TrEMBL record:
Record's protein name: HSF-type DNA-binding domain-containing protein
Compartmental location: Nucleus
One GO CC term, this protein: nucleus
Keyword DNA-binding: yes
SMART domains: HSF (SM00415)
Recorded family membership: Belongs to the HSF family.
UniProt keywords, alphabetically: DNA-binding, Nucleus, Stress response, Transcription, Transcription regulation
GO MF annotation, one: sequence-specific DNA binding
Superkingdom of this protein's organism: Eukaryota
Chief place where the protein resides: nucleus
Amino acid sequence: MKQSSNVPAFLSKLWTLVEETHTNEFITWSQNGQSFLVLDEQRFAKEILPKYFKHNNMASFVRQLNMYGFRKVVHIDSGIVKQERDGPVEFQHPYFKQGQDDLLENIKRKVSSSKPEENKIRQEDLTKIISSAQKVQIKQETIESRLSELKSMRGKRPNSLWCQSTQSRILKEGIVKRCRKIKTKKRVLILAFDVLESRFQ
């Protein structure tokens, strides 16, 4: 990488870390080169951070990434956020891409210009979104539980109204549709939370 006075030291060190092959077991590019992965947070914090950043605090490293506009990549599967415990953590920035170190000059440190009143409003918005997401989750679990009960009734009484009644079929279809709507609403809430969280950081 060509050193530039316009590129902060943190970004230069980060680029070196991701690029160098001898650190690939700790940190490396994703397959498409549009993001990078920290493969083992504990070992990375203990063995790598002290050598490059003079501390071993993973939370501080993540805060630095956030200050420069990096975002943690969240994978959503069927409207539900997938959380990989003890797995790789992925970060992305539109100007941090494999083979394009010339873009690093475009990465700027965030400057907070919001007023305390604005922060309070944003915090209230985040609280509302979290509350709404929890209510949606409860509704989904209730509906799925009811659907499971109906399916079990079908197995116990094969000649019951479940098999013969049009009303039961309509009920089942209605429950499935509601589940789909709830999952869609969850995706919207997750995206809204993500946007507000980025503004609040």
